[in-house]
């Protein structure tokens, strides 16, 4: 959960209060962030929902509209926030984010530098990882993006864990105040090789750097620069394949001796269904019964970028 003020620490057992931020879940691909206000309402295709009915309910509750429709009220975790935040720039998604947090070896108490902030998708997860005693200093050269990011971190309760600065890290490097005290550095820049020398000065001995780049040419040039003061240089491409699982019916199906299968809304798939408790334990052929069908999502994301990690060499 998002680590905020201890008196308001979010959990699925905590009740929603006036002024809280909640994620309204309509379906897996339709969610929105809403600030609860006792006098407000939410109107969508499922009806009108009074915020006053939400107050006092625990996160995860199912609430109903005036005409019987329903939504779920979820706590704003970094994973959900990544799906609903405003896209001021191209963002990192969950597969890359989880990989970054792991390979940067980020734990509670770490000091992390990030450039650039963008929409703050990664920053939110970095903040949770360093909580409650660590801190994330994130920089963006675009002042309005930095202002918007600060507002988002205030909404999600992370302003005590994140400091947003306006700075051209490619041209100026990181502030000298961080020299030799940083555990991890993350770069999401058009020319990361220009910032790598400064990042190396910020890191503690054995500290870890990660650079995110969409093009392999950027990776090649960054790796050349990293070779001077870094070791254990590795590049990864994280590809995530999601599946849709639904109940459906087959239009036709041949028996065990047949070689063709019927079609469904998911396309051509084997005609199988799960047995009920009073039937045999094996799978049976039945063309007319509902069955659980799974297939790769047609909206699955492909390449997002390359993640290059490197460890600062220890001084001799």
Automatic annotation (TrEMBL):
Gene Ontology cellular component annotations, sorted alphabetically: nucleus; tRNA (m1A) methyltransferase complex
Ranges of Polar residues composition bias in the record: 277-289
Reactions mediated catalytically: adenosine(58) in tRNA + S-adenosyl-L-methionine = N(1)-methyladenosine(58) in tRNA + S-adenosyl-L-homocysteine + H(+)
Amino-acid positions noted as binding S-adenosyl-L-methionine in the UniProt annotation, renumbered to this chain: 119-122, 140, 168, 188
Record InterPro entries: SAM-dependent_MTases_sf, TRM61_C, tRNA_MeTrfase_Gcd14
Protein origin, superkingdom: Eukaryota
Protein name in UniProt: tRNA (adenine(58)-N(1))-methyltransferase
Organism: Escallonia rubra
Lineage: Eukaryota, Viridiplantae, Streptophyta, Embryophyta, Tracheophyta
